[in-house]
Specification:
The protein is of the alpha/beta class and 365 residues long. It has one domain: Rossmann fold, CATH 3.40.50. The protein is built from 13 helices and 15 strands. Helix 1 crosses helix 8, helix 5 packs parallel to helix 6 and helix 7 packs across helix 10. The protein is globular, with a radius of gyration of 20 Å. It starts with a strand and ends in a 12-residue tail after the last helix. The structure holds uridine-5'-diphosphate-glucuronic acid. Uridine-5'-diphosphate-glucuronic acid (UGA) binds next to helix 7 and strand 9.
Length: 365
């Protein structure tokens, strides 16, 4: 039986990875998180030992020591990862993504344990194309993101948007530094907008604040409010279905020789969409899923980023991952297209939150 540690096992990605690893029957998980709502069905599983604690608490690192010594991999997934928080709480963002977390790298390095870290595609920052006004995404070399080649381009320090990306970038660099000096094996994953059931929260129902775009648009659809396009909704994202992403993580865990000491982009470049087109597609799918044609006319409006997030927001313009490394080293390729990803995900949200407003999926009605 393989033993792994998962920090952040109760979050969106953590809970899906926990589902998959426990279903395999040959993995024991020592999991840390402050909440267990998303993994409550596993609490009685003898292969799952849940520690309800903030991952960054000093006591967590003390507790981790004995487990690290005999585990296969330490998977770190805990993060503050919503852009609204980077702008509203940059100190907390930097603290939680670097200062309170770097001891984990020291600890893994001491034990030469495999540190399996989920970073972010946001470390690439903005594309070179966005700084070359005449390029207009004509030159792939100026905007495709390649793990070991592409420069990481953050905007000015005064824009707090980059508090997260720079903390994550330093975390990656600290992993590399330790690995070079101690031989600690590592894997760094850069997720590209992984979407799926249980992502984020719906404000006023099971959380407060501004979640990421999927949950923002779902909240608007559930509440009969306009979908808001920040600065016109021209930013591009590549949307990746969570099950495809978990396939990639599983392949890495199964093939340490292929995965260790590598950075991997995990994204679905075929599912690229602007936020404006995403809004139109989501309202179309809302009509299809609930059988309520009124969604086809659901209002969509523009809003400035200053008004939506507050001062200090700046957007990542485009994120096109080069995924040839994941394909060639792991045999991984995203399988689920954008429409199917949204259909599965939105159906789940309507099932979970739609009943009070009479917005359940047609097949459940
Ligand atoms: C966030 C994190 O910062 C990344 O680290 C992470 O990799 C990524 O989510 C992810 O989900 O993988 P981002 O894509 O910028 O990055 O976050 P979102 O809040 O989902 O925003 C996506 C785009 O939608 C942005 O252009 C944002 O301005 C826009 N948006 C958001 C809207 O137009 N309307 C909204 O109501 C919310």
């Amino acid at each position: 039986m393989k033993k792994v540690i998962i920090l952040g096992c109760g979050g969106f990605v953590g809970s899906h990875l926990t589902d998959r690893l426990l279903a395999s029957g040959d993995v024991h998980i020592e999991g840390w998180d402050v909440s267990y709502d998303k993994v409550s069905e596993h609490l009685d599983n003898p292969n799952f030992n849940f520690h309800q604690r903030y991952v960054d608490a000093d006591t967590t690192f003390d507790e981790l020591g004995p487990h690290i010594a005999d585990c296969e991999a330490v998977i770190s997934l805990a993060a503050v990862c919503t852009p609204a928080q980077y702008v509203a709480s940059p100190v907390k963002t930097i603290r939680s993504n670097f200062i309170d977390a770097y001891s984990l790298i020291d600890l893994c390095s001491e034990h030469r344990s495999w540190l399996f870290h989920t970073s972010t595609c946001e470390v690439y920052g903005r594309t070179l194309s966005s700084y070359v006004p005449t390029d207009d995404y004509q030159d792939l070399d100026l905007y495709e993101q390649r793990e070991d080649e592409t420069p990481l381009i953050m905007g000015p320090t005064r824009n707090h948007r980059w508090s997260y990306a720079t903390a994550k970038q330093l975390f990656e660099r600290y992993i590399y530094a330790h690995s070079a000096e101690s031989g600690m094996p590592f894997t760094i994953v850069r997720p590209y907008n992984w979407f799926g059931p249980r992502m984020d929260f719906i404000p006023g129902r099971d959380g407060e604040g501004i979640p990421r775009v999927l949950a923002c648009f779902m909240t608007a659809l559930l509440d009969g409010q306009p979908l808001q396009l920040v600065d016109g909704g021209g930013a591009y994202r590549t949307i990746t279905f969570i099950d495809d992403a978990i396939d990639a993580l599983s392949l890495m865990l199964e093939q340490p020789k292929q995965a260790q000491n590598q950075v991997f982009n995990v994204g679905n470049r075929a599912s690229e969409v602007t936020m404006k087109d995403l809004a139109f597609l989501m309202r179309e799918l809302a009509a299809e899923i609930t059988g309520k044609d009124a969604f086809l006319e659901h209002p969509i409006e523009d809003i400035t980023s200053d008004k939506f997030y507050g001062e200090g927001y700046e957007d990542c313009d485009r994120r096109v991952p080069d995924v040839t490394k994941a394909e060639s080293r792991l045999g991984w390729k995203a399988k689920t297209d954008l429409r199917e990803t949204l259909r599965i995900t939105m159906t789940h949200y309507f099932e979970q939150y739609g009943r009070p407003a009479g917005l359940t999926p047609v097949r459940d009605a």
